[in-house]
């Protein structure tokens, strides 16, 4: 059956200005954003893709049931009288989700902007509550995208010919996303659903339904009508625009595009088992983050004191015995320990046995990287450690991306959340002891806070950054440090200025100069204004091009998100994960 194609206006697709990074338009509807409990997984998916260097327009629907509730509320006021202004009320559902999602992004240190209906430039025609998009003026959207790389757009709403809000008809957020993708010339448009693609029939009712890897626009209109809004499929067909349909965390979207392939039976993927060492600030935040992720199961947790009460109930029993910890059997080891010797020895042993490792410990990674990389190579395992540097600020990814483009000349960064937090508070009149106590209470500081204050923590991170920037061994780098001691604090307080602990790497006379020092922020305009525990990095190449990134440098949720993205990466390469868990015992 051929789709009936609506007569949409078809302006030429325009790439966004300065479009270096691929642009993805993603849509999160009420099947994946049912309640506020679902926000962390959606924010995590956005974080994962931003970290991988994608620019994102994220279109959201109202939370489940919200649109019906708002229509009913409107009707309670209007009765049978037809009112043009119903979209003003009903579109609040999508605006609320956009604001909630931005909060969830902020919590994990992912900058995002919201493009409100009046700024979006999406014009519509037809009935106010069942309109068709006709054109897009992306001026504000482009501006916001250039500023943060992630723009959240309330779906389902546009502006009618009379300049008032209009609605795109039920399921219209799909249409918002596909239309924006088409008009912006996006590299991908993906609609996230609670099912992993398009099936012959609803897998909730027919569990053995087969799944399409590819389904044509016309066939999608036949088999996937309840899943994808028809208008968006018709628009995509008219523009020859492929649409991806997938569940969060999936690696195999259905492509709704030019062809239909034979559907295949679904094989559920077994969960990946995680051995989590450390159940403090980071370990507990990771357990909370993975609670509803069907891909992972925390199988074993190693701690110092199993009897202590924890704020996040552990998903399995805690042990302080390494043998018992290992006996549970797992595919991935997460190092969230404060004890370096235990962490280093477990990482090395497990990597050599083929167990993948995600580490949050800059001390372990900066001191043992060549050894650990060797163990990973011999065991055929992956070693990831994004969380060890910058918390959720994707500093290592940004540096690696820059290094792939050209010769790095300089890296200037803020990489210690605790010190940045303290200096920020000092500049706002707090006393040093109070600021340090607040940083500790927030879970930013190391077990021994002296490592933060002395610059040793930043120096360890700088060594890892240098490895990614200049391909040198972390241990080979000499780093000068300056301590935030009483004398420095007195000098900073007397200056009345905002100071930063800045870490830098610079090519100088054929060697790499590296240092961690305290400077007034006014001397470092390129750093912007990193507030509280936020970290940032500015990477400059020999040709003058500049790469930047920001994120929360410390704290449970941000650090756990970086680990979750590492776990996601491991899960995506799961073909390489051996299923023989007896390796642990050997
Ligand atoms: N807190 C942060 O903001 C943050 C951010 C990024 C990285 N990190 C790193 O993550 C790791 C954990 O940090 P945290 O803040 O969660 O620390 P934490 O002190 O809150 O927790 C440490 C955990 O390690 C366990 N532990 C310590 N020694 C042990 C031993 N010998 N055997 C078994 N268990 C042991 C403790 O019982 C505790 O569960 C550290 O390497 C830290 O540098 C922390
Ligand atoms: N103590 C560290 C934790 C993140 O590595 C900091 O404050 O930056």
From TrEMBL:
Against InterPro entries, the record matches this protein to:
AceGlu_kinase-like_sf, Asp/Glu/Uridylate_kinase, Asp/hSer_DH_NAD-bd, HDH_cat, NAD(P)-bd_dom_sf
Domain (Aspartate/glutamate/uridylate kinase) spans 24-231
Taxonomic superkingdom? Bacteria
Molecular functions per Gene Ontology? homoserine dehydrogenase activity; NADP binding
Q: Which residues form the Aspartate/homoserine dehydrogenase NAD-binding domain?
A: 278-385
One Pfam family of this protein, by short name? NAD_binding_3
Keywords, in A-Z order = Amino-acid biosynthesis, Methionine biosynthesis, Oxidoreductase, Threonine biosynthesis
Top class in the EC scheme: oxidoreductase
- Any idea of its EC number? 1.1.1.3
Q: Which GO terms describe its biological process?
A: methionine biosynthetic process; threonine biosynthetic process
Residue ranges annotated for the Homoserine dehydrogenase catalytic domain, each copy included: 394-567
- List the pathway annotation: Amino-acid biosynthesis; L-threonine biosynthesis; L-threonine from L-aspartate: step 3/5; Amino-acid biosynthesis; L-methionine biosynthesis via de novo pathway; L-homoserine from L-aspartate: step 3/3; Amino-acid biosynthesis; L-methionine biosynthesis via de novo pathway; L-homoserine from L-aspartate: step 1/3; Amino-acid biosynthesis; L-threonine biosynthesis; L-threonine from L-aspartate: step 1/5
Name the family the entry cites.
Answer: Belongs to the homoserine dehydrogenase family.
This protein's name: Homoserine dehydrogenase
Q: Which organism is it from?
A: Allosphingosinicella humi
């Amino acid at each position: 059956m051929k789709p009936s194609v609506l007569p949409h206006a078809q302006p030429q697709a325009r790439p966004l200005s300065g479009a270096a990074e691929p642009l993805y338009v993603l849509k999160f509807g009420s099947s994946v954003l049912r309640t506020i409990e679902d926000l962390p997984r959606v924010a995590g998916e956005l974080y994962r893709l931003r970290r991988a260097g994608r620019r994102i327009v994220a279109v959201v629907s109202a939370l489940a049931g919200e649109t019906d509730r708002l229509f009913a509320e409107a009707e309670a006021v209007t009765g049978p009288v037809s009112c043009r202004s119903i979209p003003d009320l009903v579109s609040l559902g999508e605006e609320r989700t956009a604001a909630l999602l931005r909060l969830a992004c902020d919590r994990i240190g992912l900058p995002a902007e919201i493009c409100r209906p009046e700024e979006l430039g999406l014009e519509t025609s037809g009935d106010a509550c069942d309109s068709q998009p006709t054109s897009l003026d992306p001026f504000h959207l482009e501006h916001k995208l250039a500023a943060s790389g992630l723009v959240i757009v309330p779906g389902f709403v546009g502006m009618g010919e009379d300049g008032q809000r209009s609605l795109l008809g039920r399921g219209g957020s799909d249409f918002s996303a596909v239309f924006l993708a088409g008009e912006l010339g996006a590299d991908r448009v993906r609609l996230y659903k609670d099912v992993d693609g398009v099936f012959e029939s609803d897998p909730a009712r027919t569990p053995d339904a087969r799944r399409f890897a590819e389904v044509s626009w016309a066939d999608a209109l036949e088999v996937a009508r309840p899943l994808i809004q028809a208008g968006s499929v018709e628009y995509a067909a008219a523009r020859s625009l492929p649409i991806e349909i997938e569940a969060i965390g999936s690696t195999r979207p259905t492509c709704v595009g030019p062809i239909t392939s034979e559907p295949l039976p679904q094989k559920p993927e077994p969960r990946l088992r995680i051995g989590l060492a450390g159940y403090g600030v980071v370990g507990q935040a990771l357990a909370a983050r993975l609670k509803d992720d069907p891909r992972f199961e925390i199988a074993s947790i190693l701690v110092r004191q199993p009897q202590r009460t924890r704020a996040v109930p552990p998903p399995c029993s805690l042990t302080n015995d390494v043998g018992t910890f290992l006996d549970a059997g797992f595919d991935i080891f997460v190092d969230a320990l404060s004890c370096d010797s235990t962490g280093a020895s477990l990482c090395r042993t497990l990597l050599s046995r083929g167990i993948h490792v995600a580490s949050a410990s800059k001390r372990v990674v900066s001191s043992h990287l060549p050894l650990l990389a060797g163990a990973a190579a011999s065991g055929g395992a992956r070693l990831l450690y994004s969380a060890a540097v910058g918390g959720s600020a994707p500093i290592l990814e940004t540096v690696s991306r820059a290094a792939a483009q050209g010769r790095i000349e300089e890296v200037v960064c803020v990489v210690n959340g605790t010190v940045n937090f303290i200096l920020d508070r000092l500049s706002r009149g707090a006393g040093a002891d109070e600021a340090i106590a607040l940083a500790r209470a927030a879970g930013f500081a190391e077990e021994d806070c002296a490592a933060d204050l002395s610059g040793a923590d930043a120096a360890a991170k700088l060594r890892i950054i240098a490895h990614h920037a200049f391909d040198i061994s972390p241990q080979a780098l000499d780093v000068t440090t300056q301590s935030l001691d009483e004398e420095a604090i007195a000098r900073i307080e007397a200056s009345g200025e905002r100071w930063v602990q800045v870490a830098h790497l610079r090519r100088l006379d054929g060697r790499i100069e590296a240092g961690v020092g305290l400077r007034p922020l006014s001397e470092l305009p390129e750093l912007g204004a990193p507030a509280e525990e936020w970290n940032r990095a500015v990477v400059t190449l020999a040709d003058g091009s500049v790469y930047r990134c920001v994120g929360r440098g410390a704290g449970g949720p941000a650090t756990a998100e970086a680990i979750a993205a590492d776990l996601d990466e491991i899960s995506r390469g799961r073909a390489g994960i051996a299923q023989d868990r007896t390796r642990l015992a050997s």
